[in-house]
Amino acid sequence: MPAKSPYLSQLLNVLSKIEQHFNVKLSATGRITGLSAKNGNKVTDPKTTATQAALVAQAISQATNTVIKLAGDLGSINSMVQSQDQESVIARLNKTSFKSISATATAMEKLNLLSLNTSSKAAQLPPNLPDSVGLFKKTYNAAIALNKSLESANLLGDAIMKAKAKNPLIPDDLVTTATTMISAAAAAQTAMLAALNVAIALAQPVT
């Protein structure tokens, strides 16, 4: 049996807290109800809005960097696995993981640009109404996509560790990189959930 991944439970826990505090309904499949575009796009305090938008941009930038780091680790594993039997469990999991994280990293880079643009608009005097609701929705979708990538990465890391335990000829470099990748996955999850929390605060101000 593969090691149980903590990523989905962590995501669901954060979504539950967001639902309770911000009066919205979120599902792990991407559905959102109760998010008011009217409230999210209302600028009652330009300074506060600008500050919050900057915090969102910073959090998303940090999350993007961690995802890119994770993608780099999986890229290294992908290079190492290319010489192995492509029908092996590791090779198949590697293919899925690498494809998933590559798509997620591309999406995060686009999200990062959007968050910077939102922050720039909010900082203008007078402020240019930022689409904070749209930004949250994209951040939310990115968090779900990342969760799927993390689940795949977890399965790959677990398979590599088990293979090494059974076969000492599995390269040490592959195991070391897998260990680094597992740490990078945890960091990406932490950063993404932090971004999700600040994005909803901008999109759905609590009055």
Entry summary:
The protein has 207 residues and is an all-alpha fold.
Explain what the structure shows.
With 207 residues, this protein is an all-alpha fold. It has a domain at 53-120 and 129-203: Up-down Bundle (Butyryl-CoA Dehydrogenase, subunit A, domain 3), CATH 1.20.140. 76% of the residues lie in helices and 2% in strands. It has helices at residues 7-22, 37-40, 46-81, 89-123, 132-166, 172-203; strands at residues 25-26, 32-33. It has a two-stranded antiparallel ribbon with strand order 1-2. α3 runs parallel beside α5 (132-166), α3 runs antiparallel to α6 and α4 (89-123) packs antiparallel against α5. The longest helix is centred in the first third of the chain and has 36 residues, at 46-81. It is elongated, with a radius of gyration of 19 Å. The mean pLDDT is 87.
Oligomer type: single chain
Return the average pLDDT rounded to an integer: 87
| CATH class descriptor of the domain at 53-120 and 129-203 | Mainly Alpha
Proportion of beta-strand residues: under 5%
CATH topology of the domain at 53-120 and 129-203: Butyryl-CoA Dehydrogenase, subunit A, domain 3
Anisotropy-based shape: elongated
Helix content: over 70%
**Structural class of the secondary elements?**
mainly alpha
Run of helices and strands: HEEHHHHH
Give the CATH architecture of the domain at 53-120 and 129-203.
Answer: Up-down Bundle
The number of E-state strands comes to 2
Number of helices: 6
The main β sheet shows up as: 2 strands, antiparallel
